[in-house]
Amino acid sequence: MCGIVGYVGALNATQRILSGLQRLEYRGYDSAGIAIHNNDCIQICRDVGKLSNLKSRIRDYPIYGNLGIGHTRWATHGEPSEHNAHPHVSMHGDFVVVHNGIVENYLDLRNQLQTDGVIFQSETDTEVIVQLIEKFAQEDTKRDITESTRLAVQKIKGAHAIVVMSRHQPDTLIAVRIGNAGGVTIGLGENENYIASDISAIVEHTRNMIFLQSHQIATITATHYTVQTIDAKPVTPEIRHIDWNPVSVAKGEYRHFMLKEIYEQPQSITNSISGRIDFETQQVNLPDLNLTASDAKQLERMITVACGTSYYSGLVGKFYIEKFARLNVEVDYGSEYRYRDPILNNKSAVLAITQSGETVDTLSAMEEARDKGATLWSIVNNIGSQAMHISDGHITMNAGPEIGVASTKAFTTSLVDQLLLSLYLGQLRGTLSTKQRTQAIHDIAKLPDLIGKALDQNDAILELAHELYHAKNFLYIGRGINYPIALEGALKLKEISYIHAEGYPAGEMKHGPIALIDEQLPVLAIAPKDSLYEKMISQIEQAKARGGIVIAVATEGDQIIEEKADYVIYVPKSPALLNPIVNVISLQLLAYHIAVLRGADVDQPRNLAKSVTVE
Ligand code: AGP
């Protein structure tokens, strides 16, 4: 969950690393640190809290050098403090390490090293890595940094992303990836090279990237790199050209990344559709899925695995896939799936939805599915991520970098991708009529415009936020395809404003949660003009009868609802299948404005991180 950046080249490493860390701060923000090689010694600066604290220290006491590593931390072992912040340094000061992951056997290793006389300076699990590297280097002075690191990582258990530098090799960085502790991306520049947890940290400097795979170790100088396996077998890595626009990782005119990303949705959805629908032939094409018609026809069921917002996306996708592909879909939490011995075979497809492609729970669910012989697909935003790598086929969200910890544009693009997947599967399986296909494609083409219209309600939603931001609890209700949107709306509110909010299927209200309703409780009811509209109206009446403050998300032009609800957020009239994608925009804006009015840190909410790489 931490962010890592490394630099080797002719420029000042400090600046490059700090600007990279700024882009990665969404991954962890309880402390940060940097280590720079300078005239035979390594200078380290660390501070608790946000990166801005570290930056102002470095402004007061600048450090210069051409080789360095930096880290922004999300604490697992040892409280957030200066001495627990990375980089960690070995006892004799010969090596420094930054790390993402958990050393599962760190207590045993720490005891062993302490028995050998090593003195530890932190309470972290990470420190054993750097002490081990130094121990291996001292045992045999002919061992270089790569070899000592290779031997050290063979001793540690768990999943890791590690970057190492040595006082004695002022031109070299080592990067290691073991398992699913987050990505290790190597950015190849002109007489300079980078290492980063993900593309966003370095895309402004280079677009040519290598994505290290599990059990690989890279040795990197300003002009060369070599990659080998942890067992010292040489590897020829694939270099990928990334066409992300560097501007897309800057906040621009917006006060927060989250707001910028909410407003980017007409474009990100256009990007996700683009090239995948042939509007002339009215066909959907998803070549990266690597699927033949005969394979598609023999599928008997699909299981979607995901976490958080991505899980709610899967709940909406179930409606699409069952409707158009006539494939039975189950949706499960990545964090739960592997703990119940799921029944899978070669007639099952498992779809992982994960914007980061690094969520360890989702990756573990995928591995479970792979072991049981299922076909593995992923919908991923982060190009080159592990989820994409281990899948048989994938769909990229094409949302561009999402920096705000609360997911917005990745959610809506993943909905569009599942809609495309359902049409594609329907085509291949022969379950989709020409009429259905033409209608769906016609509807999808209108989506960016509908999202734009939903965004036009921003001022009205801000006004509403002023009325509601003192509330202590919220209930979100929806039915059918809009029930997952109630869940997502509640999650958005709680994660950025810290207001307790629950999403509920509207019809279930009378089976329990109705007891909560009083004059203090805002009840947000998603009630577009669809086949369940009347039923939603009666839920609204029930909430009103108990004194609840009802906020309805309703279709523009609906006057009846104005008499029923206390407040109405209007959304443009849209086809039923697109309703969730359009409706969620207003819930994103509402959560955003409430959080800002409460003074919360919208882009970096407390205790959260963007890539959840620990279990
Ligand atoms: C979204 O707002 C959350 N921060 C979180 O629930 C997130 O969706 C979840 O951790 C899954 O992440 P992924 O899509 O990167 O796998």
Brief synopsis:
This protein is an alpha/beta fold and 615 residues long. It is 36% helix and 23% strand. Bound molecules: 2-deoxy-2-amino glucitol-6-phosphate (AGP).
Write the topology of this structure.
Blueprint: E1 3-9, H1 13-24, E2 31-38, E3 41-48, H2 51-60, E4 67-73, E5 88-89, E6 95-101, H3 106-115, H4 127-139, H5 145-153, E7 160-166, E8 173-178, E9 185-188, E10 192-196, E11 208-211, E12 216-220, E13 225-229, E14 234-235, E15 240-241, H6 257-263, H7 265-273, E16 277-278, E17 283-284, H8 293-297, E18 301-306, H9 308-324, E19 328-333, H10 334-337, E20 348-354, H11 360-371, E21 375-380, H12 386-390, E22 393-396, H13 409-429, H14 434-455, H15 458-468, E23 473-478, H16 483-497, E24 500-505, E25 522-527, H17 533-545, E26 549-555, H18 560-564, E27 567-571, H19 579-597
Parallel strand pairs: 18-19, 18-20, 20-21, 21-22, 23-24, 23-25, 25-26, 26-27
Antiparallel strand pairs: 1-4, 1-10, 2-3, 2-4, 5-6, 6-7, 7-8, 8-12, 9-10, 9-11, 11-15, 12-13, 13-14, 16-17
The structure holds 2-deoxy-2-amino glucitol-6-phosphate (AGP).
Question: Would you mind describing this structure in some detail?
Answer:
The protein is an alpha/beta fold. Helices cover 36% and strands 23% of the residues. The protein is built from 19 helices and 27 strands. Helix 9 links the parallel strand 18 and strand 19. The longest helix has 22 residues, at 434-455. The termini are close together. The relative contact order is 0.09. The mean pLDDT is 93. Bound molecules: 2-deoxy-2-amino glucitol-6-phosphate.
